[in-house]
Write a structure and sequence with these properties.
The chain is of the alpha/beta class. It has 13 helices and eleven strands. The protein has one domain: TIM Barrel (Alpha-Beta Barrel), CATH 3.20.20.100. Helix 4 links the parallel strand 3 and strand 4. The two termini are about 15 Å apart. About 40% of the residues lie in helices and about 15% in strands. Helix 10 crosses helix 11 and helix 11 crosses helix 13. The longest helix has 15 residues. The structure holds NADP nicotinamide-adenine-dinucleotide phosphate. NADP nicotinamide-adenine-dinucleotide phosphate binds next to helix 12. The site of NADP nicotinamide-adenine-dinucleotide phosphate has 26 residues, from helix 12.
Length: about 325
């Protein structure tokens, strides 16, 4: 395992987290200027993202040109049990999503397979026409035969159909960040990534990301097309992807940790996290998010919730002051716990 940088904040100071060229323009696929205006009719006007609560988490430029506040929102939990069907309380779900943008979160992660379809449909119902600058990242690469059942499907025809479904449900003409949910080992990776590259060339996708990948897989994919983000399971208590975080930081690729709160369990009674949070008079979830934001300037946490109260608590984490020594110590303690 590679060592954690001295402090995330020091790293952030040393390097500017921006300035990537537009990968589309580099590879000869449609660039920003050609795609300009694509989603314009979907926007409901400007919002001062930088002055809202989530802005306290800092900013990251996805692909060098999509600026987002680092604390995002994961929209998997706005579906029913087993990530299947309708949420228990659709009204509360709509309230959560509207509050998401009111609090300044302008990066929402979803997938065609959440529900399936339900998460994307509710996002559009709650937020379309979207405020300018809201980035919705979706994913494809799973079939859903039933609740809690996930079957990888990276066949090019599946990915193409999934993209069309996401465009329709989200009411967009182009997806800002389209992520391959899994690299399907039954299909050559070149075919899966090649399909996405074609869709990008057609102007239907702006940027492409990966999910649950190793450093070797990211490097292989980057030989085929530009990759702007990686989404792996990761939290202060779950550090298997430490090497991927370090790689992303070196390469200025966004790292989106899923399960950032270990579904609320990071607060297990008696844990290092719970003890430290108590001392700081904050909640364990807030401390877990604070640690992720500190860990690397390329990390974009996407805690998910179906409740406004939890959303407020999570966003409040962005403004909390926790000193570097405490966060560094917590990383070591939680890792060894
Ligand atoms: N790429 C992938 O393969 C993959 C896999 C899984 C998830 N994801 C993405 O990652 C996002 C986050 O992952 P996740 O939802 O599995 O994990 P998570 O964000 O760590 O946990 C969400 C759970 O924690 C609870 N929670 C949220 N805030 C809380 C708080 N302040 N206090 C106590 N409990 C709280 C929520 O319950 P309540 O609803 O009751 O608040 C929810 O059940 C998903 O929404 C999805 O977008 C990606």
């Amino acid at each position: 395992m590679l060592p954690v940088p001295v402090t995330g904040r020091e790293v952030a100071k040393q390097r500017k987290v921006s300035g990537n060229p537009d990968p589309n323009e580099v590879r000869g696929t449609p660039g920003r200027s050609e795609l300009k205006g694509k989603n314009m009719k979907s926007t409901s006007g400007k919002r001062e993202w930088g002055s809202l609560a989530a802005a306290k988490s800092g900013q990251f430029q996805i692909g060098g040109d999509l600026s987002v506040n680092r604390l995002g929102f994961g929209a998997m939990r706005i579906t029913g049990k087993g990530v299947w069907g309708e949420p228990k309380d659709r009204g509360e779900t709509i309230r959560v999503l509207r509050r998401v943008v009111d609090l300044g979160i302008n990066f929402i992660d979803t997938a065609d397979s959440y529900g399936p379809a339900v998460s994307e449909e509710i996002i559009a119902e709650a937020l379309h026409p979207y405020p300018e600058g809201l980035v919705i990242a979706t994913k494809a690469g799973f079939d859903r035969p039933g609740p809690d059942k996930w079957v990888t499907n990276g066949r090019p025809e599946h990915l193409r159909a999934a993209l069309e479904g996401s465009l329709r449900r989200l009411r967009l003409e182009r997806i800002d960040v389209f992520q391959l949910h899994r690299i399907d080992d039954k299909v050559p990776a070149e075919d899966q990534l090649g399909a996405l590259k074609e869709l990008q060339a057609q102007g239907k996708i702006k940027h492409i990301g990966l999910s649950e990948v190793s450093v070797a897989q990211i490097e292989h994919a980057r030989r085929i097309l530009p990759i702007v983000s990686v989404q792996n399971r990761y939290s202060v208590v779950d550090r298997a992807a430490d090497d991927v975080v370090d790689y992303c930081e070196r390469e200025n690729v966004g790292f989106i940790p899923w399960f950032p709160l270990a579904a609320g369990d990071v607060s297990a009674a008696g844990s290092a996290l719970e003890r430290t949070a108590k001392q700081l008079k904050i909640t364990p979830s807030q401390l877990a998010l604070k640690w992720l934001l500190w860990r690397s300037p390329v990390i974009l946490p996407i805690p998910g919730t179906s409740r406004v109260a939890h959303l407020d608590e999570n966003v409040a984490a962005a403004a909390l002051e926790v000193d570097d020594a405490t966060l560094q110590g917590l990383g070591k303690l939680a890792q060894g716990a």
